[in-house]
Design goal:
Distance between the termini: 41 Å
Radius of gyration: 24 Å
Largest sheet: 4 strands, parallel
Structural class: alpha/beta
Number of strands: 15
Shape: globular
CATH class of the largest domain: Alpha Beta
Amino acid sequence: MNNNNQSIHIKKEVLVKIIKAFFSENFAKNVELIPFEMRPKGMNVPYRCCIYKERAILRTRIIAGLGFSIENDDEIKQLSVYAEEALARETPASGPLTVIDAACKGCTPHRIHVTDLCQGCVARPCQSVCKFGAISMSNGRSVIDGAKCKNCKMCIAQCPYNAIVKIIVPCEDACPVDAIVKDTNGFVQIDYDACLSCGKCIMNCPFGAVHEKSQIIDILKQMQSGGRVIALIAPSIVGQFPGGVYRLKTAMQKAGFADVYEVAQGADTTTRNEAREFAERMEAGAPFMTTSCCAGYSQFINKHLPEIREFVSATKTPLYYIAEKVRRDEPSALTVFISPCVAKKNEGRANPNIDFVMNYEELGALLIARNIEILDCEEAVFDTESSKQGRNFGVSGGVAGAVASISQGDVRPCVINGLDKTTIKLLKKMAKDRKCEEGNLVEVMCCENGCIGGNATICPPKTAQRALAQFCAGSSDLKRL
């Protein structure tokens, strides 16, 4: 739902106003005024109980947009002070996520629930199908004992009146590793020891209560100071903006980037190295190998499935290789990875060759704030054109497909199209059994559809996939090993 919901539009509007304030004569003062500009006196309140609640939530969104944790806010510090501190800091704040308590609905706990549609029928199929004795009759209708219920949903399937439903909490339901918990007041908290930073909670919360901490001010400061700031665009950026990536490159240079590189160049290096590594592992008798390009999957291995690590490719990610190249060619330049998801901020923080991470939503806000129309820009090609295979890394199956396309041996891809409870069970089974029934090269993407389904993408995955396929069709093939 990240591509078409009002909370995303509000977040983008906040970012646009922060960026405009940055380029104004008085950054701190104009940041302070943003909540009042967005919700002026006399305006009909569109979402909350009153205009003051709206302004309070906008204030916290601005704090996150300035790059700070909302959890540390004492509600007394003025936004102008936060703006000044953002200008003064030397490095971005650690940790990519923060939670807006005021925006959280405090949803009712997820559970299986009997609605008023229950007719108290004589057959009582819900009661007979329950293996755990969780359903009984009270006052002529079914009642579920939450302490006994195992959420198997068999009763839902059996009820002839569709009277039993599963009540979900969207952020909790989307999290594949149960990292979303509730505090004593029923509001969301993130268990960062379990969190993959996959961003699924961001895109699924209908209230926009989970927020990414932006590094946009840190990046703009470097641009304004005259530093050479180079953008590294992920393969999945194709189709996210109108006009194509060649016009986008020109637009980004107008916005302040000194140059723009395709991370797909690094994907070509990853493909070659991973194909060699795969051949060596198969010759040594390994039952399978998993790819390791997805930052969310890397977090999953480290935190939840270390026993599969021996089967994980040691090849570096495309971002690693392209950042290494830029640092080698231009040691004094600063690098900004333009990302479809929040998970890449963890990879960026761990790599000294990556200075900042900006997502697609933030890039879009920057272009809007600077009044740059991509369609009005001329095309600017890249110094080195990437291959069809490298550019296709942004979709599920693209990584394994690239390795298979240049390999000489028997490559049987098994694509895990998104991490969820089901696919996690499958990966755990592979690690336990030390084999993969479906293939020998396992590609794992944390997001469904791959990177084009990341939390900070702009257009629907199907639309992006069509644009990416068209772009790849005009690109050259990577040579076989």
